[in-house]
From TrEMBL:
Name by which UniProt lists this protein: Methylthioribose-1-phosphate isomerase
Similarity comment: Belongs to the EIF-2B alpha/beta/delta subunits family. MtnA subfamily.
NCBIfam families: eIF-2B_rel, PRK05720.1, salvage_mtnA
Active site, per annotation: D258 (proton donor)
Amino acid sequence: PQVTGRARDVENVDGAGPSGIMDGMTSEVRTIEWTGDGLRLLDQTLLPERVEYVDVDDVDTLVDAIRRLVVRGAPALGVAGAFGVAIAVRQAVREGWDAARRDAAIARVRAARPTAVNLAAGVDRALPFAADGTDAVVSEAQAILDEDVRGNRAIGALGADWILARTGDRPLRVITHCNAGALATAGWGTALGVVRDLHERGRVELVYADETRPLLQGARLTAWELDRDGIPCVVQADAAAPSTILRGLVDVAVIGADRVAANGDTANKIGSVGVALACAAAGIPFVVAAPWSTVDLSVPDGRGVPIEERPAEEVLTWGGARTAPGGVGAFNPAFDVTPARLVTALVTETGVLEVSAGATPSVVSSGV
Ligand code: MRU
């Protein structure tokens, strides 16, 4: 099924539209918000060409939007999951569902994508409020959204402090993979939150944005964010990343995460592990920036992280035309797991863990 929600606020990306999205910095972009009647999602499948929103007020539309990456990125998925409970509660009242049908609908939201633990965690946090009605659920979901923005600011500052303490005074050349920015969160971003903080301190020389095959979150979304905020960046093919690092052109890698296991193994967009291996070989830090809600202490190590496999067409076609010979299949894992030994630091809103030096996420769990 396709997204059937109402599209609105279509804008040329060079123009200022009624939402005001084009007027400010990308850090002010609202990727997800509750309108009072439902959820409004910035349709990330259309960026950078078009800024268009989808209004969601039923579960089928939300599940489809999550699967198609209209809304994406672990923290944004957590917020979407929590508001998804509110959507299900409203729909149950509107359509006369019994509790079993409502709970089945919520379970579909929870399982719409498997890797980012935030989606299920967002649903689980909002679910206890379902018995109290929509307003109670919305209030909890809004709290998750607000906490995410605050947490991202803290991640940005802590990550920038940690990086600058290790890299000295020179302007930094940063590599990032996929999009862990304002678009992937409720605002500001995790990995790009760190980059934004470094930029505010005048310490970013250049960001290498890996294009992130096959859905191009780096080329379409990260480059869009950085360009709008005046942060120097170039897009490179994913395959260029290890070479760029080994040539000495990068000082630090900063990426986001979809799930961090108890031992520090980190699931993130496919291709992250190649960046990590190259960083280890070049002796530069590989930094993971993620909210504590992305840490899953119930999973001992990366082997327990479910890796989403996406449709073959994403790999076998380009611009709608087939690129591989007919009859050939595809292997399309959306995520990989970087072993903890390759993760120099994990930056959360509560502090920085030096993972490859032996610190594990469970060390700070009591402080959260
Ligand atoms: O498939 P996506 O676009 O949802 O993948 C997103 C990523 O891999 C991000 O790096 C991760 O979710 C962290 S977002 C702050």
